[in-house]
Write a structure and sequence with these properties.
The chain has about 120 residues and is of the alpha/beta class. It has helices spanning about 20-40, 55-65, 80-90, 105-115, and strands at about 1-5, 10-20, 40-55, 70-80, 100-105. The chain contains four helices and five strands; from the N terminus they run ββαβαβαβα.
């Protein structure tokens, strides 16, 4: 399940459990609208009890990332698990964005960081 909020060129999302294709059917139009309107996007991606992606969701995620690899300014990845921290590092080759991992305890700092140019 995913919840989405936007503020200017920033998308704030909270992912819980396993992301589905339907989550991406909801998310991608929001992100593409931000890119269309502002040309760039920053993304706060919080993971709560995150279990990863279903196959269809992962495919949609990769396709979106490749299409918009140069449209991201910052990505704040927020979670608690070591594999979530490693996921942040693994994303680096797929975007020109500055990517940073924050723990859930530092979520407020992550929200502020993603706002700064």
């Amino acid at each position: 399940m995913i919840s989405i909020q936007t503020e200017g060129n920033i998308a704030y999302t909270v992912a819980q459990g396993k992301l589905t294709k339907e989550d991406y059917d909801q998310l991608i139009p929001v992100l593409e609208n931000i890119i269309k309107q502002f040309k760039t996007i920053s993304w706060y991606f919080e993971m709560q009890n995150f279990e990863g992606w279903e196959a269809g969701a992962f495919t949609k995620d990769l396709a979106f990332d490749f299409k918009h690899w140069n449209d991201f300014q910052k990505i704040a990845m927020v979670g608690v698990e070591q594999w979530e921290r490693m996921l942040t590092q693994a994303m680096t080759p797929f975007t020109t964005a500055t990517i940073r991992f924050f723990t859930l305890a530092d979520a407020a700092e992550a929200r502020e960081w993603v706002k700064t140019p």
